[in-house]
Design brief:
400 residues; alpha+beta; 2 domains; seven-stranded mixed beta sheet; six-stranded mixed beta sheet; 28% helix
């Protein structure tokens, strides 16, 4: 049986000869050629299609094997390639422009029973794009202009969707974002050198949350206050296990952006128009729930409190040491239809599972006598928090 090194050399010799059938014959049917950061090819069809397109676009494509290193059933092949983008075929949608490329790369070939079963191909796609004229040359004026344009876009996105974490208590930070007026709150809680993310805001806040969390050590886990679109939005992009109350699990894992108990008819005409269009754009989609949490559990020095009504499994976090409460949508401090901020109020009935139960949860929170209570939107309630929440729970819930 040939060694992995021999198999790899035979494969690259076939590619150098533009013998696509011979190259494909080196593969186990169903084997995976992983072009790292680009795409995966499934042998043999994917191999034939990719290299057929490549050689049609670069008819003088020349491979040179520089060195090989083998260990057991793997061989690393460092190679160099030179070619002209002469066509007549296109390559990945681009028309031939006569550009010359001179690149190096490395393939890590895994063989099983004399055939290639897997390959990881590493190449600097940015360098290739620059050589083909698809990106400006490194250090050029055009690159400087492109960097300026990208930086301007980043600054605009950051102004709208947040860019940094603001400390609000010992070991607790807030990332504010969302449109309009940065009214979405995501909380980062120090947790064994990493952070627990509580509530995940909207999809467009993902870069801000990832950046802020990375500066604080990285994300350990994401805990959803509840599974509404504007509280799970960034979660799929955060790359961390997601936890929520058992009563929110099905909604968190659903692709639906609207909860089945919402009554949008209770909103004013402007609210129905705006929110029916904004909510799907806020949603990052379904998440896979790693595990559930329940009342009384400890998370990063906070105790979980079950506060149903707005949503069946809405939870808050309460820290007895400084009486800080992070409570998602247990209450609002803004009008959801206009974004205007104000005093604490019961969540809008259009979005509540049970408004009377939501009132009871506000009273439950008030009895803990928080020093500061942060909702999932806008500003916190501070000072005599208990009295403010009790008044809000007793007030008539309007349709504003």
């Amino acid at each position: 049986m040939p060694s992995t090194s021999e198999i790899a050399k035979r494969y690259f010799a076939a590619l150098a000869a533009h013998d696509i059938d011979a190259a494909a014959a080196c593969w186990v049917p169903g084997g995976i050629d992983r072009l790292v950061g680009q795409q995966e090819l499934i042998a043999p069809t994917g191999i034939k299609e990719y290299f057929g397109e490549l050689f049609a676009a670069f008819p003088d494509f020349a491979f040179e094997v520089l060195e090989t290193t083998s260990y057991r059933h793997r061989t690393a092949v460092r190679w160099r390639a030179r070619a002209t983008f002469a066509g007549p075929g296109r390559f990945q949608g681009f028309v031939a422009n006569g550009a010359r490329i001179d690149i190096e790369g490395c393939d890590v070939v895994t063989a099983v029973d004399g055939l290639i079963a897997h390959n990881d191909a590493y190449v600097d796609s940015g360098d290739i794009a620059r050589q083909l004229g698809l990106l400006p040359p490194a250090g050029s004026l055009a690159q400087a202009r492109l960097a300026k344009l990208v930086n301007a876009r980043t600054r605009v996105h950051s102004r709208i969707h947040g860019s940094s974490a603001e400390p609000i208590a010992d070991g607790v930070w807030i990332v504010r974002g969302g449109f309009p007026l940065k009214t979405m709150n995501v909380f980062l809680i120090e947790d064994d050198g990493l952070v627990t993310v509580f509530d995940a805001g909207i999809k467009d806040m993902s870069p801000a949350v990832i950046t802020a969390a990375a500066r604080l050590g990285g994300i350990k886990r994401v805990v959803l206050g509840h599974a509404d679109a504007d509280h799970r939005g960034a979660a799929p992009a955060l790359g961390a296990p997601v936890y929520c109350h058992a009563a929110e699990g099905a909604a968190a894992e659903s692709s639906a952006s609207f909860r089945d108990y919402w009554q949008m008819s209770k909103l004013g005409p402007h609210g129905r128009f705006l929110l029916s269009r904004l909510i799907p754009t806020w949603d990052g989609g379904a998440v896979r729930v790693a595990d559930t949490v329940e009342e009384g559990e400890q998370i990063a020095g906070f105790e979980v409190i079950h506060l149903p009504g707005h949503a069946p499994g809405l939870i808050g976090l309460f820290r007895a040491s400084d009486r800080l409460a992070l409570v998602s949508d247990c209450f609002y401090t803004l009008d959801p239809q206009t974004g205007l901020k104000g005093a604490a109020r019961c969540p809008h009935p259009a979005f509540n599972l049970d408004t009377e139960q939501a009132r009871s949860s506000m009273r439950k929170l008030a009895q803990l006598e928080p020093s500061t209570a942060w909702a999932g939107h806008a500003e916190p309630v501070a000072g005599d928090v208990r009295s403010q929440l009790e008044r809000a729970a007793a007030a008539q819930v309007g349709g504003s």
